Amino acid sequence: MADDRFGGESGDRAQSGDRAQSGDRAESLLRALAAVPVPPALEAEISARVRSAPPPRRTPVRAGRAFLALAAVIAVAVGAIALNGGALPVQPAPSGTAQPTDLAVGPSGAPSPAASPSAGVSPASSPNATPASTPGASPVAPGPIAAGPALLLAGTSLRAEPAAASTTVRVARKGAVVYVLEGSVTNAEGTWRLVQWDGDVSGWRVDGFVGWVDEDRLAANAEHHVPSCPAVPTLLDLTALTAGERLTCYGSAPITLSPVVPVRLHYGGPTSVWLAPDQQGDPFTSIPAFVSEGDPARVLPMYQWLTVTGHFDPGAILGCDTSAPADEPDIDYLKCREEFLVGPTEPAEAPDTVAHGSWRTTARAPIHGSSDSAAVWTGKEMLVLTSGAAPRSAAYDPVADRWRVLPPSGLGGRYAPASVWTGEAWFIWGGNIDGAELDDGAVYDPRRDRWRPVADAPIGALSAAAVWADDRVLVLTVDGQLALYSPPDDTWTRLPDAPVTRGWTQLFWMGQEAVALSWGEAVAEPVRMATFDPVAETWSSLLDTPLSAANSSAGVALGGRIYIANDVYNQIDDEGRWSNGVYDAATREWQPFRQTCGSSAGPIVATSDRLITDRWLLDPIVEACLALPRALERANSGETTREGPAVVWTGTELILWSGGTGGDGVPPPNDGAIFRPGP
Amino acid sequence: MKRLHVVQAQAGDVDAFESLVRQHTPAVYRVCFSLVGADLASDMTQEAFVAAWRSLDRLGDPARFGAWIYRIAVNCCRTSLRRAPRIRDISLDLNARERARAVPTSARFEPQVELRATLMPALARLSFDHRTVLALHYAADLPIRDVARVLDIPEGTAKSRLNAALSQVRLALEEPDRG
Lengths: 679, 179
What we know:
A: five-stranded antiparallel beta sheet, B: mainly alpha
C-alpha cells in the first residue's frame, strides 16, 4: 500500500528501468518536460486558494439508490454510543472465516439514535449483531449530506498494522460505518480488528480504506449497524448496498440473480468481470464477480443474458486464501470476500429494460477515420467533415449503404467548427487549429454537390456555437459575440453581445428564443445562462443555474426543454449543484433530471420524443431508460468503444461513424455502425 | 513524514497541506503543462490541489497521496479540455514554430524553446490518454508501474500506451506539418 515513491520531485529514475534509453530526439525532448520551470508564485497562489476554501469535507455520497442506502446508514450511525460494554460481537463464521459486522463508530457517551428497522431479513452473517435500540431517530431525507469538517474521535486511530506504533491510516470520523473484515489478532499491545470504512477493494470505490483498530477502543466507540437486507435480493437491491453491507446481509448464502449480464469493466481494481443489468454495465448498477480464469467450466459467456446463482464471500473456494495470516491481510483475500462467486448459470431472456432493435455496420468510408468530426443529417445522407489538419468530407446514404466523397470544401484544417444543417445546406464556420481561432466558413449544398465560402463575419475569430433558428443561423462566440447568418443571401447581421462568462458556451434554439449556457472557465463557478429574444433582439441578464460546471456538458434540446444528462442519476456536489438537469423554456425553471441510463462516450441526440446515445434510449418525460444492445466490435479493435464519434439521428436510426477506440494507439477506424430501434 | 502530513491535513491542518503542496507542486504542474499547455497548467494545478484539499476525507490511504494528486490533476485537465476547443488541449504560443525558427541557432535548442515550438505541437496530436502516460512518465518522472497505478490501468496497458505515444511523437517530430 505504501506509495511514498509518488514523492513530488524526487522521482524514480533509477528504479524505472523500463524507459528506453535510445537517446532519440523524442525522448530527449520529453525528458525536458521534467525540467519545465514552475511559475514562482504558483505555490503561494495555491496556498491562498486552499486557505480560502472550506476545510476537508465529509465523505461525499452519490445521489440515487446508493445514496439513499448510505443516508439511512448514517442516520443510524451519527451520534451513536457504545452499547456493547466493550465486547465486540464478532464471531467466526461456521466456515471458519470471520464474518463482517457493520459497526457504527460514534463518540463514547453521546446520545444514541434509533436503528432503522430492517425492511428485510436479519443480517445473515452477523448472528450476534444487536440493533441499536434507542427510539426517536428521524430518517435522513434524500439529498446531499451536509458538507463540513469531519468530527474526529481522538484516539480512534486505524492503523496500517496491528500495533499502536503503526502508521495511522485514518482517524475514524463520527458517524462512519465500518466493517469488521477480519477476526481479532492479539499481540503484546492488545487485541486488534481489521476494519474497512467506505469504498471497497473491488475496483471503483477507490477511496475506501482498510486499517487495524484496537478492539477495546472500537468497542468503546461503536455500536452495531443493521442494514436493511431484502430477503430475496435482486441485482438492484445488491447495488444499493455497500460491499460490507452485502457481506453482512448475505454472507455466503446462495443468491440467484436473473436476468444479468457478465460484462468487462475496468475501474482500476482487481475485478474486471461484473454482473450488470444490461450489456453495458457500470459500477453503480453492477456488482463485481469472481470468475476463475483458468477453469474452463467456470468461464462465463460474456455479454449474454443469464440466470446466475452464486454467493458472496467465497472463502477458500477458487483461490481465496482464507488461511492468510490474520495480521497480514491480503487485498486479494478481501477482494474475494466482496465478489460474487458465480456458480451455475442458465440462459435467460432479456428484460424489458433493454431496447429492442439491432446494430449493423456501415460500409467503410472512403475517407480516413476521425474523432470529433462535424456531422449533420440532411434527410437522406449523413454528411461528415473530419477534424484535423487535412479535413475531408463525405456523405453516407444508409439506405444504399454507400458513401460518396464530397468535393473539396476549401476549408483549411480545423477542430470543433460550428456545424448546422439549415434544411437545405450545411453551414460550417470557425473552429481552431494550431492554437489559432478561425473566422472563415463554408456552406455545402447537397443538391448541387458544391461548396461555397461564407462571407466575412462581423464577429471575431473565436470558438462558437451555432443553431438553426427557423430561417437563420445564430452564431455565438465563447466571449459572447452574436451574429445571424442568412444562407440564401450570404449575409451576416451583428446582434447584441450575450452576457456570458468567457468559456465553453452552448446554444440551444427553443422555438422562440435561444438559450445560452455558459460553462465558464472555473470549475468552482456555477453554470450560467441567458436567453435571447430574436424579435426584441435583447438578452436577459445572466442567471446562475443549479448545474455544476465540474461536469461535461452533454445536453440536447427536445420538446421545449434542454436536457443536461452527464451522469447516471443526478450527482449533487458539495455546493448542492447538479450534474444533470432539465430546463423548461415555458416555465423558465430547472428541475433535477434523474436519468438512470449512465454516461455515454458519444453525444446525446434527440429523436422525435426520446434522447439516444450509443448506449441508451431514454424517454425523458417518464425518465424511463432502455439500454441499447451491445454495440458491434470496431473494425480494428475488439472493443465497442467509440470516443468522439460523429452521430446523427435519421428519424428512424442512429448512425455512428468513426471515433477513437480508447487510446491504445489505434487510429480512429473509418468504420460506422447503425442502430435501428425495434418496435 | 509525508504520510504524517497527509494525516494532519486530513484533520484540517492547512500548514501540513501546504507542505504537501510544496512537495508536489512542481511535478503536478509539469504534468498539467504536458497535458494542457502553459496557459492552463497553473490553473489546473491550482484546481487539483484545491480539489484535493476539499476531498481529503476521500483519500483512504495517506501513503497514496502522491498517486491521488496526480490522478486529480489529470482529471482536472481532462475536464478542462472537454469544455475547451480541442486544439487548446495544448495551448501554444501562436506560431511558436515559426518564432522558434527565427531564434538564433545557438538558442534554438534551449529546452524551453524547443519544447514549446516542437514537442508541444507533437503532443497536441496525441489522444489525451497517450499524452497522460507521457506526462506522468516523463514530466513527473514516474516509472511505468506507478503510471499504471495512477491511471488504474494494467502495467502492460501503460507500457503499450507509452510505446504507441512515443511512436506518434517521433512521427510527429519527423513530419511536423502532417496533421
